[in-house]
Amino acid sequence: MRSTKIVTSFIQDDQKLLILRRSDKVKTMKGLWAGISGIIEKNEIPLTRAKIEIHEEVGISEDKIKFVKAAEKLRVNSPQYENHEWEIFPFLFEAKNPDIKLNWENSEYTWITIDELKNYNTVPNLEKVLQNLL
Fold first, then answer.
1. How far apart are CA 8 and CA 92, in angstroms?
2. Which domains does the chain carry?
3. What's the pLDDT score for residue 79?
4. What is the rounded distance in angstroms from the CA atom of residue 115 to the CA atom of residue 130?
5. Which long-range contacts (CB under 8 A, 24 or more apart) does 108-111 make?
6. Within a 10 A sphere around the Cβ of 94, how many other Cβ atoms?
7. pLDDT class for 125, splitting at 50, 70, 90?
8. How far is CA 17 from the centre of its chain?
9. DSSP class of residue 126?
10. How far is CA 26 from CA 43, 95, 116, 125, in A?
């Protein structure tokens, strides 16, 4: 089975969590709500990739976020590809009143409570990934 390593990060501001809607321009999971995600390059450290993705996708620099927690990586079967799984490295960060500037990978964002996540059409296992961080 093929495997792709990715990071998925959440930013928390008080009791709200930032989620993003994936744009029609991305390769996978178009239109679904997700955390801030990206593929880990070669031997890259997952936490380093998470901070890069946060800056690229929502425009928050490393000095404006505070690392809170990492959870154990999860393996999730890919619904889009046969014999493929995602190895997800979850991270939680805090930011106070961040100014969100989306890049092309996401079309919109919203701040939600954990209980509101069930109201969104998300990438597979997003709630499981998030629950491991809280």
1. 9
2. 2-131 (3.90.79.10)
3. 65
4. 11
5. 108/20, 108/21, 109/18, 109/19, 109/20, 109/21, 109/58, 110/18, 110/19, 111/13, 111/16, 111/17, 111/18
6. 16
7. confident
8. 11
9. H
10. 23, 26, 25, 19
Distance (Å, whole) CA 122 – CA 63: 29
Q: Which pair of structure tokens corresponds to residue 84? A: 């493929």
Q: What is the pTM of this model?
A: 0.91
Q: How far apart are CA 74 and CA 64, in angstroms?
A: 27
**Where residue 64 falls among pLDDT bands split at 50, 70, 90?**
very high
Name the CA dihedral angle for 43, 47, 50, 56, rounded to a multiple of 10 degrees: -80
> Quick check: 54 and 99 in contact, CB under 8 A?
no
